[in-house]
Specification:
The chain is mainly alpha-helical. Helices cover about 45% and strands about 10% of the residues. Helix 6 runs antiparallel to helix 7 and helix 7 runs antiparallel to helix 9.
Length: about 425
């Protein structure tokens, strides 16, 4: 998955935007140079002309060094989103981003930032500032037409709600997860959701599922091809282990990298991977088992955000089904605030609950130093020793109580 990098250049006194192959993304780099050298941006304004008709002009505005840093960061976010988005689109290309239609820019603002990423007021102000100043500069330079980048009236209210703490239930029942799986468009997309709900993977960790065997230090670990062979050779074996390398996981604060962990894959899930590999996966030189199936990027590695984006798409479908009465009105209902990450948290909650039952420990008696929490922390890749452990433990305890309420047929408010 190509990534856009922003590198501060002391020599040129600006930020240089580049692809992973070090080729320069020219227009944002020129914009950065103009902004950084003069500590100035150019903002679009509409005024009445001498003939009484409105006309667009661009006025200089001074800007602080802190704001230039914010603009560079938010533009980097935008370009990386666009790079990922272009993989599934034959019409969008990052090299022609200056001519993106206003509709797509506002899709990024309203659907991606507000709905998917649930940005609050401060974050949205920064994103809008960066996009508006950048595209105003391009328009002033004659490189594109003026863009009206804006929040919808509806989403202004949503942003205010996003600023507050999210209130969606951080647990999905097995029945609701199953409904999501059944409404995917492909076996690959089903697997992208199931790895969250059945293995506890973050979206980006799907890139760590490799086909070939690999070495970590002096130890050899099995890839999925070897797991498929094991499954065929041992028909009575129900669970298979896979080593997820730390370089594919989330790095902990002040650490040198992510934490490796063992995944325990049930035969039924491994069988779905095998069927995907045999019947659906396009020809590819990539070592990751899950690859893109879109025409323009067929066979390339999926992006870190692919699972999250697939979840959002299926979520919209299931929400519409709920509104139209196409699914039962009993049991848990999917909510707008639910994200792909809640699949992972649901997996952790189920394991936490199962271990409490197995060890005959009351849910409320679990502490950050208990065997239950330490086991779940190992399965999830959490650090059991950091200061967030007590908060994480309380979150799982609360989710376990919610799980019990749903299992007893009660509704959680």
């Amino acid at each position: 998955m190509p990534k856009i990098k922003a590198i501060k250049s002391a020599r040129h006194n600006c930020t240089i935007f580049s692809h992973e192959d070090c080729s320069i993304l020219f227009l944002p780099t020129i914009f950065s140079s103009a902004m950084s050298h003069h500590q100035t941006v150019w903002a679009k304004r509409t005024i009445l002309g001498y003939d009484g008709f409105p006309q667009t002009v661009f006025e200089e505005e001074e800007i602080s060094e802190t704001s230039t840093i914010v603009i560079h960061n938010k533009l980097t976010n935008f370009f990386n989103w666009l790079s990922a988005y272009s993989i599934d689109s034959q019409y969008v290309n990052i090299d022609t981003h200056h001519n993106l239609p206003e509709l797509l820019l506002n899709h990024y603002v309203n659907d991606v930032l507000v709905t998917q990423q649930q940005c609050g007021e401060s974050s949205m102000d920064h994103h809008l500032m960066a996009l508006r100043y950048y595209y105003d500069y391009l328009a002033m330079s004659g490189l594109t037409n003026a863009k009206n980048i804006r929040l919808t009236a509806k989403n202004k209210k949503v942003v205010r709600q996003n600023t507050k703490k999210r209130t969606a239930v951080k647990y999905l029942t097995p029945e609701l997860r199953s409904l999501l799986y059944r409404n995917t468009d492909s076996l690959r997309d089903e697997l992208l959701l199931r790895t969250g709900g059945e293995l506890g993977l973050r979206s980006k960790e799907n890139l760590g599922l490799l086909l070939d065997d690999f070495m970590v230090g002096k130890k050899r670990h099995h890839g999925f091809k070897s797991l498929f062979a094991q499954m065929d050779a041992k028909p009575d074996k129900d669970e298979f282990t896979y080593h997820l390398q730390g370089k594919y996981t989330k790095a902990h604060r002040n650490s040198g990298g992510g934490k490796a962990r063992t995944l325990y894959i049930h035969r039924s899930l491994l069988s779905k991977f095998k069927r995907y590999y045999d019947e659906e996966r396009p020809e590819s030189s990539e070592n990751t088992i899950l690859v893109n199936n879109s025409y323009s990027h067929i066979g390339t590695a999926i992006a870190k955000s692919t699972a999250s984006r697939r979840f959002t798409k299926i979520k919209k479908r299931v929400l519409a089904m709920q509104v139209n009465g196409e699914v039962g009105q009993f049991g848990q209902m999917l909510e707008e605030d639910h994200t792909h990450h809640i699949l992972r948290h649901s997996f952790g909650t189920d394991k936490f609950y199962e271990l409490c039952q197995k060890n005959r420990i009351a849910i409320d008696d679990v502490s950050p130093t208990s065997l239950v929490y330490l086991t779940v922390a190992r399965l999830m890749g959490h650090s059991a020793e950091n200061r967030e452990a007590p908060t994480t433990t309380k979150t799982y305890i609360r989710s376990c109580h919610i799980k019990e309420m749903f299992e007893q047929g009660e509704h959680y408010d």
